[in-house]
Amino acid sequence: MEKRTDLSIREVISTNSQFLQAMQEDAQEIVAREKEKMLKQRLPLPLAYLDFKNLFRSFGTVCLHHRNQNRNFIIDNDNTPMIEQLYLYATGNPSFEGNLGKGIMLQGKYGCGKTLILETYSLLHNHVIRKYHLNYLLLTFIKSVELQEQILKQSASAFAKRPLIIDEFGRESKTVMDYGNISRPVSELLSLRNDAGTLTHGTTNFTLATLSSDEFYGGMIGDRLKAMFNFITLKGESR
User: Fold this and answer.
1) Cβ atoms within 10 Å of 140's Cβ, excluding its own
2) Whole-angstrom Cα distance, residue 69 to residue 115?
3) How far is 200 from 86, CA to CA, in rounded Å?
4) Are residues 83 and 106 in contact, defined by beta-carbon separation less than 8 angstroms?
5) What is the rounded distance in angstroms from the CA atom of residue 111 to the CA atom of residue 115?
6) Distance between CA atoms of 206 and 237, rounded to whole angstroms?
């Protein structure tokens, strides 16, 4: 077997005239792979707005029937602006009033329809992927309290790289006792997802200022929330 020769970095660069070009090409390949991973988290829906709106209404009705509510999903003056923004986001339209690289945190009053809108988006997104066997990641829709319980049973890393919609964000206990130690499961998960660039959506009754307060996640996690989410307010009273 040929003996391996250990070279210094100076020797590597001096004997390889293509060193800089090779390093630049490697960096570009890595960036391309990371971009591809990011794209796999989001299913592009190349639809006209009217078609998207009609599909959204239909799958919103499906969501309501899953809840044993025998009624149709209604698009009205309160939720139309949000559905329009969600359409721009889902189609990758630069007219979206936010950053297309971030997730959506839908905030508003109790009962105004936040959960139903993002649950409908999740159902539509996942149904298209499953029906046509597309190579995209499914969205996991989960309430924050349940997510925290699952993190304690498994680990934060188990949820670090799958696309999530966290419903009722901020409603869970901010600290828990884990084998005698104080743990912050959701805060830990948010840090991991931010570092990994994993797409996260959510609904909340709280503002960014409240979520960033010491009573909630604190300023450090608040900065991560700003980096991860477009905060969009859904207007209207309880439905």
Assistant:
1) 14
2) 15
3) 14
4) no
5) 8
6) 15
What mean pLDDT comes out for the span 60-79? 95
User: What is the reported pLDDT for 39?
Assistant: 67
What is the overall mean pLDDT for the chain? 91
Q: Which of 9-23, 63-77, 139-153 has the lowest mean pLDDT?
A: 9-23
Q: How many CA atoms lie within 13 A of 102 on its CB side?
A: 17
Report how far apart, in Å, the C-alpha atoms of 42 and of each of 59, 86, 118 are: 18, 13, 14
Q: Name the residue type at position 210.
A: T
Between β-strands 164-167 and 140-143, what pairing exists: parallel, antiparallel or unpaired?
parallel
Contacts of residue 13, Cβ cutoff 8 Å, sequence gap at least 6: 19
The amino acid present at 103, given as its one-letter code, is G
> Given strand 103-107, what is the order of strands in its sheet?
140-143, 164-167, 200-204, 103-107, 229-233
Instruction: Write the CB contacts of 136 (distance below 8 Å, at least 6 apart in sequence).
Output: 40, 41, 42, 43, 129
What average pLDDT score do residues 72-85 get?
96
- Could you give the count of Cα atoms lying within 13 Å of 111 in the half-sphere of its Cβ? 3
